[in-house]
Design goal:
The structure is a homodimer of 330-residue chains. Chain A has 330 residues and is an alpha/beta fold. Chain A folds into 3 domains: 44 residues, Orthogonal Bundle (434 Repressor (Amino-terminal Domain)), CATH 1.10.260; 131 residues, Rossmann fold (3-Layer(aba) Sandwich), CATH 3.40.50; 128 residues, 3-Layer(aba) Sandwich (Rossmann fold). Chain A contains 13 helices and 12 strands. In chain A, strands 2-1-3-4-5-11 form a 6-stranded parallel beta sheet, with helices on both faces. A 6-stranded mixed beta sheet of chain A has the order 7-6-8-9-10-12, with helices on both faces. The longest helix of chain A is centred in the N-terminal third of the chain and has 16 residues. The N and C termini of chain A lie far apart (66 Å). Chains A and B meet through helix 4, helix 5, strand 2, helix 6 and helix 11 of A and helix 4, helix 5, strand 2, helix 6 and helix 11 of B. Chain A binds a DNA duplex (30 and 30 nucleotides) through helix 2 and helix 4. Chains A, B: InterPro entries: HTH_LacI, LacI/GalR-like_sensor, Lambda_DNA-bd_dom_sf, Peripla_BP_I. Chains A, B: GO terms for molecular function: DNA-binding transcription factor activity; transcription cis-regulatory region binding. Chains A, B: Keywords: DNA-binding, Transcription, Transcription regulation. Chains A, B: This is HTH-type transcriptional regulator AscG. Chains A, B: It holds the Pfam family Peripla_BP_3.
Chain lengths: 330, 330
DNA sequence: TATAAATATGTAAGCGTTTACACTCCATTA
DNA sequence: TAATGGAGTGTAAACGCTTACATATTTATA
């Protein structure tokens, strides 16, 4: 069943059928109705490959997402997929599986699928190789990064001021008198480093140097909660103590909270990403919300703007917001 | 840059180039190397639309997933995507956004994309309309349902014996002397109803009738934890009590646990899906693991078998396993 | 060496769309 | 009445690949 079949059944030419298919105004109402009726009757579905070959696009967007099973990423992908569908695009998924993995082959994969644009969720390693991969991809189709930063030409970014968020949180804690603030983190992606930098800046501003920092890198690869729990125990066993804790992800906060609780240590704990995990804990953990849904909306807007030749800002930075729960009230 | 360009640069015909592209054995080593070299030099990427038009497939699988932001679904999609890519297929995502939503338009969407097969994550409403949609789709391409059941012809299912899991859990609780076992649930999908049925059967076996059941339907649409917390409070306020609780999802278990804890009620609580949520809680919640990754592996195997004309079982049922944590030990 | 068989290559048609361009009507307008 | 213009339609080429079939080349066999 192709356009020729429909054309002959409707007694018109393929051009007319194609025009009906594409809502061209250059068809008479009569022809339009007739063709439409036949198409409905026959259950005709245009061949997307032929259309793609002819138009060189099937209106699809590639989503590049490290570890889609990460709850934050899943939320992002979910939101993006809906927005794109609403705008007539479909979504081809490429999930790398780890944060550090080289993205270039996934970019190539998506480009080979002839996507109209690429949307990348989350920040990556930020190294030169990654930048080059993105720049190469961006030479072919628009590339937008959600909640991450890739400093490459023609790569658009929508991100959250995580550095600022941590910085003002540190300031707030210091103001309240907490002097030894610990910071537990995992990834050293752009986002990870920004947060870390916010922490350090905050301490530095108060005259607290490198030796006053309590930084702990948690290996969250397999089970973040267990890892954080164990590593927190280890650090406490060394006799180190701290009067407040900021965690780069809620999962880390949860694990640390468990360890602290076991020793009946009650200090302010603030997590990151405002996930359900923070709410599951007891006491519920306050968390910095990076507004992932807003970022997705912005990113999709950037993408559509670029695709449609409208001007779009290369970098959009929104601010985070602290969701206060039991573990810390401003 | 197309196959003709490559052909002329390599001094061969398009047929030869195409053969190299498709690893045909009918090319001399010499031609093969030459063509390959030129393709590499030129950075040639075959046009997937043209290939699709010619072969009537681009080796893509549609994933139909209600609410991909659900942590369990995200895990499934993540796993499936990797498995499929390993097998040379890419993944087109269609996420419905809610469990009840009519899936037929999403199926049509995927079919219009000319996917080679459809993989549906999770159970749906199970109603006649849904069945009809799936049957229609299954008439065109193989359809496999992961962790759900659609009783339609030619629809393959890989699922977990959730009814049996709840049933034996109830038996176990009764054996331990817990007489008034509550069951909190949310969705009434196939899976939801199976679990409910397991609960009822378990009680019935012990001679406990409908009036001994403590069933509560939680509205988890917006925030499952809050909903469960509030509704648990409400039911407790009415004076109703129970000596053990089974929840159809970890999120429900978490909310209920919070409410019970506030009243210093300590009873066995068992959740479902063995998500991180269960581990975040305190005490950590035991949970029935529905082995979603195994199911995905099985489902993808079914799919590949069917696609390659090998025989595949229409229904695969695996058993669940109870992950014991602090909230309940066997 | 002649011939058959196997291997390698090329030609051209076909996949199902879109769309530039050409054409036919028919209603205006001079 | 003839010329003009606009609306509707059709023809045919183009998109870039695969592959059946035909042909050329090499190798094996008698």
């Amino acid at each position: 069943m192709n356009i020729y079949d429909i054309a002959s059944k409707a007694g018109v030419s393929v051009a007319t059928v194609s025009r009906v298919l594409n809502n061209s105004p250059r068809v008479s109402q009569k022809s339009k109705e007739k063709v439409q009726r036949i198409m409905d009757e026959e259950g005709y579905v245009p061949n997307i490959f032929a259309r793609g070959l002819s138009l060189n696009s099937v209106k699809s967007i590639g989503i590049l997402c490290p570890v889609i099973s990460d709850i934050n990423h899943a939320a992002a992908v979910s939101h993006i997929e809906r927005l794109l569908r609403t705008n007539g695009f479909d979504t081809i998924l490429a999930s790398t599986g780890s944060y550090e993995e080289d993205k270039s082959k996934y970019l190539d994969f998506l480009l080979a699928k002839r996507v109209d644009a690429i949307l990348c969720v989350g920040s990556g390693s930020g190294d030169a190789k990654e930048r080059a991969s993105f720049e190469r991809a961006a030479g072919q189709v628009p590339v937008v990064v959600v909640n991450g930063m890739v400093k490459a030409k023609n790569v658009y970014c929508a991100l959250c001021d995580e550095e600022g968020a941590v910085l003002s949180l540190v300031e707030e804690l210091l103001r309240k008198g907490y002097r030894s603030i610990a910071y537990f983190y995992d990834t050293e992606t752009y986002s990870g480093l920004q947060k870390l930098s916010g922490y350090r800046k905050g301490l530095a501003q108060a005259g607290l140097g490198a030796d006053q920092r309590i930084e702990l890198k948690i290996d969250t690869e397999t089970n973040g909660i267990d890892a954080s729990f164990n590593q927190t125990n280890t650090i406490l066993d060394t006799g180190k103590s701290f009067s407040a804790l900021i965690a780069a992800d809620d999962i880390i906060a949860v694990g640390a909270q468990k360890a602290l609780k076991k020793r009946a240590i009650s200090i302010p704990i603030i997590g990151f990403n405002n996930s359900r995990f923070a709410q599951c804990a007891d006491p519920e953990i306050s968390s910095i919300d990076t507004m992932i849904e807003s970022l997705c909306t912005i990113a999709v807007q950037q993408l559509l703007d670029v695709l449609q030749g409208r001007p779009a800002p290369e970098r959009v930075l929104i601010s985070a917001s602290l969701v206060q729960r039991e573990s810390f009230i401003l």
